[in-house]
Each structure stands twice: as C-alpha cells, then as structure tokens.
Amino acid sequence: KAWFSAGVWFAYIAMVGSIALLVGTLVQGVGNLRRAPEERTQQILVPVMPGVNLPWSHMLYFAATLLLAGVLHELGHAIAAIREQVRVNGFGIFCFIIYPGAFVDLSTEHLDSVSAMQKLRIFCAGVWHNFVLVLLALVLLMCMPYLLLPLYSTGQAAVVTGLVEGTAVSGPRGLLLGDHVTRMDDCPISSKEDWEQCIVGVLHTPHRGFCQFADQIEHFNTAVKVHKTEHGMVECCNTNTSLSELCFHYHHSNLSSQSYACLPARTTASGPVCRSNHDCLTAGHHRLKLTRPNLWPYGVFCLFPALDNNTRLVRVRHNREPPMLFLGNPWELYYHAKVSSYMPRYDFLPLELPEYLETFCKYLISLSGALAVLNVVPCHALDGQWILSAIVDLYLGKLLPNRRDRDAVAGLISLFGTVLLGANIFVALWSLIFR
C-alpha cells in the first residue's frame, strides 16, 4: 500500500510539473518558429521519428526500451488493481506500425465499486513504475564502470571501437580497431570524453609548430615556387610527385618575412611542439641542445604547417608505433572514429558491449521518462484523464455532490490538457519536418 501511495504523490507532483513543462515548451516552440534555424534553442520534448531524428541503427534500442517501458507501465496498473481487488481481464502487447506497446484490461464494474483513493493508486501505478525505471537506469548508468570492472578497465585510454572505411582515419597508417589512444598532440586522453574535448581543443587552438634545425630544413627542403591554391592555401610542394611532404612556414630570428620549406611531414612533426622560435630555446626542449649542441640555440626554428583555419596537422599517439599523423579537419576524427572509455581485460570480450549497455540505459531514461511525463498530463485517452477524475472525486466530492458537476470540471481541465498536448505535438512536428 505504501508503495502505490507513493506513486499517487509522485503523480500529483508530476501532473503539475508536466503541465508547466508543456506550457514552457509550447512558448519556446512558437518562439523558435519565428527565428532563423541557427538561432533556435534546443527543445526538451521532441517527437521521435525513425530516419529523421532517430538513426535506423538505433531502432532496436528504441523498440526494446519502448516495449520494456510500456510493459512495466501496464504491469504496474495490473499489480495495483489486483491489490485493490479489481479483476484483470487481460494483458498483452501490440505493435502500431513500428511503435511497440502494451495494454491491460481491467474490470469496469470492479473499478466503479472501489474508492477514489483506490482508483488513484491503480491509475498512478503506471507512471510511477516508469519513473522508478528511470531511476534504476540512471543508477545503472552511473555505476557502469564499477559493475563492469571485472571485465573492463577505465581511465587509461580511449579504445577505438569503430571506423569508417576509406577515410584518412582508417588508412594504412591510421587507427585500427582496438587501438588505445592516449594523446592527441599535447592533450592527454584517458576516456571518450577526453577524446571529444581534445578534438574541440585542437580545432579552437591556433596552429602549433615543430622545432627543427636549420641544416635539417636545408637538407630535406624540396620546395618549389610558392603559390596559393584555389582554396586560398599556400603551397610550396609538388603534390604530383610526393604525398608525404607538407609545406611549412617559419620566421628567421632576424627577419620579419616568412620563409617556406617543403619537408617530410612525419619527420618534421616528430620534433618538439612550439609556438615561436623562442619556445625551441626553453628548458622544455633541452633535448635539442643535447642532440645538436653546436647548432643550439641559433640554428633552431619553429616550423608551422601552411594550412587553412579548418585544417590541422594532428599527432595521435596510441599503443602502436609510429603515432598516427592526421591532416584534415579535426571533426573528421570525431565522425570517422568511434571510441569508448572501456578497455577489455580479455581478448574475447567485445569492444562495443559497454557502449551497447550505456546506450540502452540512456534510451530507457529518455523514453520511460517521456512516458511518465506525457501519460500524467490530464488529456483524453491518457492516464492523466482518469487520474484527474479520481482527484476531483476525492477532493471535490463534498463540494460537488452531483456526479455530473464533477465530470464537467474534470472534462474542462482535460480539454485544456488535450489542447495543450496537441499544440505541442503540432509545433514540434512542424519544426521537425519544415526546419
């Protein structure tokens, strides 16, 4: 009894909260229709349409979580009904086009014979169990690293679990499935979140240079006439004869003009990182002095790749040698390589299992939470309609002894909830289809 009574109190709070949420979402949605697409704010409630805002690859997650949330919702009604001595005529599942669901058939005669509070415990049990499912999925998601600890370790690297074939990321000198990525330039990586933050950091950080000795520059330089490409990039290499060389620019310490050199990209990028010639003379780059004491510090320069603002030369370190040297837009790393924070302790363990579990929990939180929020709205054909009717009977029974008057009050509030929910769905669909 205490369990289902707690569900009643949750439904009270959720009903008020859901109405406030729908009002706020409607105001936000109408405001977004008046704004340019790039100025629109992210809406909290968004209709899910496979192939539009739901990838077909996630359809199994969507169907499984929607079915589980629906079954537990209806099971809550059934268990509460049995406890209140209301007969359950039937229980089943169905599929409407591609959307699975569940239903429970309760005896109308038995429902009419119980008190308003008993009805509330039955009607509120569905959304209550959806909310509990959200809490369980949230706890499971937060405890996932500890639950999988005997099988997977975390906090050491980002593990490559997927690659788009035919891209620079998956080339002969690119990444392989199972690689443990530990660093991107000077940004350390110990998790999936670090990987994403490092990509953003590389994109928003000015081009970094690499220290190189003057005689090495002179020895390897194969520069041709400096010219600008049709994309505005400076080019000094003969791209028809070599794909491993890259154009670099640098400043002589006593001159303000730029000099250009066409050098082997991998060899040059293996030098210490710098932002200016002065960086190559600091204590942090003392290994240059140790290798070439006769040239240090006057014969060392900081070389920068001659690239546009969206292109970067990125050095990605992993558990194999040599490190991957990536040339392109850093976002390609994000879209063409999929990584995980979980490192398998045994070779037979699938790389993507933790990600499958995390994604399933996230869908449970999202869809079961949405079912709880929407079902408690006082709208026709939803649980909220019957919950509201029982609330009116419980608290307005003495004030409005006539059943017809109580039904009229509940009907007016339900009409408002129906219009509010319908308006939200219309605006959301309009924004989704005609965005």
Task: Describe this protein's structure.
- A hairpin with a 2-residue loop joins strand 6 and strand 7 (187-188).
- With 435 residues, the protein is of the alpha+beta class.
- The longest helix has 32 residues, at 2-33.
- The chain has a five-stranded antiparallel sheet. A four-stranded antiparallel sheet has the order 7-6-15-16. It has a three-stranded antiparallel sheet with strand order 5-4-17.
- The protein has helices spanning 2-33, 59-83, 108-113, 116-123, 125-147, 192-203, 214-220, 265-269, 286-291, 331-336, 353-375, 383-395, 403-433; strands at 88-96, 99-106, 152-153, 158-163, 180-181, 183-184, 187-188, 209-213, 227-228, 234-235, 245-251, 258-264, 273-274, 300-305, 312-317, 324-328, 337-340, 343-344.
- It is elongated, with a radius of gyration of 31 Å.
- Helix 1 crosses helix 5, helix 2 (59-83) packs across helix 5 (125-147) and helix 4 packs antiparallel against helix 12.
- Placed side by side, the strands forming the largest sheet appear as 12-11-14-8-13
The total beta strand count reads: 18
Distance between the termini: 48 Å
Largest sheet: 5 strands, antiparallel
Q: What structural class do you assign from the helix and strand content? A: alpha+beta
Counting DSSP H or I runs of 4 or more residues, the number of helices is 13
Radius of gyration: 31 Å
- Taking all residues together, what is the mean pLDDT? 86
Estimated share of beta-strand residues? 15-25%
Quick take:
This protein has helices at residues 2-33, 59-83, 108-113, 116-123, 125-147, 192-203, 214-220, 265-269, 286-291, 331-336, 353-375, 383-395, 403-433, and strands at 88-96, 99-106, 152-153, 158-163, 180-181, 183-184, 187-188, 209-213, 227-228, 234-235, 245-251, 258-264, 273-274, 300-305, 312-317, 324-328, 337-340, 343-344. The chain has 435 residues and is of the alpha+beta class. The radius of gyration is 31 Å and the shape is elongated.
